[in-house]
Predict the structure of Putative Zinc metalloprotease.
Amino acid sequence: MISFIGVVSLSLGIFNLLPIPVLDGGHIFLLLVEFLSRKPLSMKRRELAQKIGLLILIPLIIFIFYNDITRLLGW
């Protein structure tokens, strides 16, 4: 049981570091962009990045739920 919890925790940690702006990895990516450009991103660009990240993440979550449900039901 502890091994399973460790695997789930590690998987969530790695998923959270993906460079999708809604996740922590996306925040790190936006900070890196600001550092390299040497000026802060405007609020409009940050909001646009968050919206795009959410549009990437929602279909991914739906796909994962679909796979889990079909696997549970044996389809």
Observations:
- The mean pLDDT is 94.
- The helical segments are 2-16, 24-37, 43-73.
- The CA atoms of residues 20 and 57 lie 8 Å apart.
